[in-house]
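PT: before anyone asks, these are the final sequences, not the draft ones from last week. 531 residues across everything. Please model them as a single complex and drop the result in this thread when it's through.
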Amino acid sequence: MVSRLKRINFNWKFVLVYIWFYGYSFIKRGPIYVLSYLALPLSLLFFIYLITKGSLIYFAVLGGMISIVTNNALTAVGDISFFKLELKIQELLVSAGVYPIEYLFGISLGNLLFSLPGLLLFIFLGFFYKIFGISLFLWTLLNLFLVMISSTSIAYLVASRLNHVRSSWGIGALLSVILTMLPPLYYPYKLLPTAALYSLLFSPATPASVFLQGILINGKANFFYLIIVIIETMAYPIIALKLGRWES
Amino acid sequence: MGIVTTKNLTKVYPNGTKALDKLNLDLNSRISCIIGRNGAGKTTLIRILSTQLRPTSGKAEIMGYDVVRDREKIRKIICSIPQEVKPVGIASPLEHVAMYLTARGFSIKDALKVSRGVLTELGLGHFMSKPSDELSGGMKRKIFVAMAIASNADLVFLDEPTVGLDPISRLEVWGALRRLRSRVVLTTHYMEEAEALCEEIAIIEKGKVVSSGSLEELMEPLKGKVRVEGYGEMKIGSMNITYLSKKEAKMLLDKYNNDRRISIKPVSLEDVFILSGVEVEKD
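LR: through. Structure below.
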């Protein structure tokens, strides 16, 4: 990917302005969207706290962070297909010489910016419940960044293959359940049988969550899962760029 | 080397629809216009020329560059505004135009400066920071005209640029297009737009060019003639029409005792369009 970036003379200016266009303008003019992405993690935090009398609050906070990032990325299925099929913005960008990888970065980082208000709340809770200190917090940020890139790539791949906008929001919601509710975000991964855990590794949220649960909750890092997140962060964008439809 | 040249350009969609059928075109003027009925193939042609869509067969070149082989080079010199493009409701006109300009390689500072200037020029100065979903349909369309003007591209493709604009907004856009330094290829349904703006006109029907040339060249066969409505062998909807010399038309009116159902109008590009082979019903 690095050689490709060099070859195409990567347009960071566009990526930065697209983050402003897609991320900042949504936060500024549509704060209700930010709240909507917070609704599920905060509800689960509430129920988990209530049911477990606070003993699994760590999982609710950690799962909430990963869930915000992944859900924001996956709901981009709707935005990407809407921009392409209905608004024709993608068409405009193709003929302006934008490369799909630049678009992918713009959407990913726009989503990350869009996730920030929710993330800040959960980071505050993380410090409040002493889930992480500064150094462990950096591991968390790294994983969230990787999950954002890989999940957005999945969203781009799916959205770019759709022929009708009408199916996009449904698919986005379905993907969100498959990739964030089934994986061990809100519960200890040790509850899962090994086969089930391995079969859920296709979701970037799974290895990220297992790695973070290991270092933040169990005090033991399993770098195998970090490597999987890194591999997925490289593989999913490559697959998305190979199989996604950029031109008509 | 023409600005736009196509040779036997054909596009067949996967569902079997033949949108372009061995289309041959050579456009060399500063503002050229492609006119045709709905479904004639205008948008498919523009999409192929702007490297959005690959042709099934044939060849198309933009300023000597092949639309398939050299598409990355072409994208550096063109700006293409699709027909149905709409702004993202939550983003402002300034954000749209600046985003587009940075996509084309402008620095962020220049993109903002140029965007503000062009949006003001097009009458959107007071609205440039408002979310686009608060703007009228005409204002939304102007965002994309602003992109074309600000792009500084060598060649601008505009697919139906004034659809949905009120007469004043349309005149403003025409004025802006005339001031453009770029070469322009536009498609339109509005004959008066083609007459007002274009130095060269190509009429396409069923994926083929049926007539092309300057307005004067296209009007030449109708020189000295008038359009007679309410009489004649050609039928458009419920209206019969024919083309006669002024003298013949006067004789006809006298014969029918100035029947109010028969009227005489000067010929225009619309008549060239009607006579150029587009399908009309005949008695």
